[in-house]
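Data card: per-record layout.
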Amino acid sequence: MTALTLSTAAAPGLRADAIVVGVAKGGSAKSGDLVVAPGAEAVDKAYDGGLAGVLETLGASGGEGEVTKLPTPSGFKAPVVLAVGLGAQPDKDASFGTETLRRAAGAAARALAGSKKAAFALPVTDAADAGAIAEGALLGAYAFDVYKENGKKDGKDAKKGAKNGKAPLAEVALLGGKPRDKAYKAAVERASAVCEELNRARDLVNTPPNDLNPEAFAAVAQAAAKEHGIKVQVLDEKALEKGGYGGILGVGAGSASAPRLVKLSYTSSKAKKHLAFVGKGITYDSGGISLKPAGHNETMKCDMSGAAAVFAAVVAAARLGLEVNVTGWLALAENMPSGSATRPGDVLRMYSGKTVEVLNTDAEGRLVLADALWKASEDKPDAIIDVATLTGAMVLALGNRTFGVMANDDAFRSAVVEAAEEAGEASWPMPLPDHLKKGMDSPTADIANMGERMGGGLVAGLFLKEFVGEGITWAHLDIAGPAFNESGPFGYTPKGGTGSAVRTLVRVAELAASGDLG
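The structure for this 518-residue chain is written out next.
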């Protein structure tokens, strides 16, 4: 991953391939004028205070994420200045928000692919700003090139690959930081740990399903657990059969790759709270017998994004040494059609003992989650959060960049939404209307896995609620929209797997550790 350092060096004398500065719209002059953001004073001075004018001549507007390159003046050791747009200039005495800085740093890092080192001279007013810039740079420099002809060999050669044959930006020097300040150092170290695990989640989401089946995913989790002192337990198909995990087994019945249920346990001797994270891990979703049509199955390797997020969050919590116990549950299966596959009309007996009539085999995520939720409930955690690319209905409701949050406790739902906002992830609280539950009535079983079409994302949430242990606070994150970016990259978000919900889960764990979670 991109190396990151805090530096007190002056921009002109720093050896680097580029100096990154921020520019914004507006200011005290007439509306639309370009303004050089704080942090770039030394660079602007070298242009005799005319950097904004030069950039305007080159067409720069200061729009968010806009990138403009120009040569440095004489006396600079770096050959290029890269100006990145920050959007509208904040009001007097206000600062740029952390998410604005995060996105700008990400856009700049991506534009500098192929460079060895860049100095980021963006606005830094406190450690939180430094951490946001660090996160943006580390996430924006991400590239998945393992399967390219000039890509990484066995994932080890970071000097090759990436877009157009260019390697990701190798090193970032964050100017304006305070290398000896504990808060700044902690912010940068946190950013490095969280982003490395988030990028690992992206790698998993981007890995083709012929190389990432349930067994392979479980092996990745086992290796990471061993490295970071996390206890791990893997239930294979025999253990699942013995334990009566009808949901997970039913979904995986049609595949040649057997399902797995993975438990990751991070514990702290100082913990006062216990969180359980549960992730949907369908390593490929064909829809099963209720087969998806062409045009809807090409990206279904991403249907394990929830499990990837949970895995990354548990490892990040361990690396950060958070004073909270965190258990991660990865419900892993491949949903395929075959002679042994679950059929529409079949009835599955779940781990909880409840029976489910399967009306649509493409509503499989809720089946594997149901077993994992009930199992997670047995540990009596203080709260459970499940994460899943669960419904297309949530994408229709909220679009491609926002995930929905449902819960059995309004205060906890609000706390999760607030944690997502603090982490820089877009989310929206969604209801669980009781009247929609009737649509899942079954004449044959205790409940059906489908209900009313309208409000399908809420119906799925109501189904999951049935499998949460009594008295346990629970939230459901439907990340179907933001988990996989099929359009072009933006900010620090790449095309493909995004690592959605990782930062939210880590933030929830941090708040639980400090006693500030709702």
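Known properties of this structure: The chain is about 30% helix and 20% strand. Residues 182-206 form the longest helix (25 residues).

See the next section for split statistics.
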